[in-house]
Predict the structure.
Amino acid sequence: MEIFSTVKNYLTLNQFPFNNSNLVIGFSTRNGGNSSSHFSTNNLGLHVNDSYEKVIHNRNEFAKNINFPLSKWVCVDQVHGNNIVKINKSHKGMGSTHYSENVGKYDAMYTCESDILLVTFYADCVPIYFYVPNRNCIALAHAGWKGTALGVGLNLLTKLMKDENISPEDIHVVIGPSIGSCCYEVNKEVIDSINELIVRPTDNFYMTIDKNKYKLDLKLANKLLLMQLGVKEENIYVTNYCTSCSSDLFFSYRRDKNKTGRMMSFIGFKEE
């Protein structure tokens, strides 16, 4: 069963995993915006040489759709690394209208405060959402193959455990739309780098095609890594969407040969 459903120009999480009416969570599509050419139409990325005015227009319209104004968005400079930052109300609005004003070079962030929207941007990489129901803590990680191999999800989970005293058994995880194994071919170096983190090496997350060609399932790789630290398998929800296959819904860095826009993952609590 698909965990996301379409609302307006974004995907929202179906209610069965989480039952909190104040939780805003989802993933944008490429549709419903004002951009043109490679960025048609709902590009939300400020760093891809699209018109600044068009991106801000798209972001403002999107903010209205999800009822979370730009002044409450928090953005980071995603560098395919594994650094984590804790977000508080002093960060609100950072990076929402000017890329250079983001929080810094991080690929994961978390908060235990409401009235903050964590946002990250994608065109094939894996968005990983974290939610701790009994603590109202949320987190968001950006995991391409480099971030996965560097353990960005593991680092975020470890920080929640150590700094916030959160048990992995209490954490719910959503793995959102990304390029699927159907479309993602990599070399042995990539497979080996991810296998180094997996305690029990397995070929479940890749399929050998040739001597140096493999089909990689990044979503499954991240799921396996999180389970190693104690997240329950039944608490991990994985989408079926492939960003490369679904050209009607998503931008794709690989499919579009680097000339493309960005979707946005988002998670936040509205104030009661």
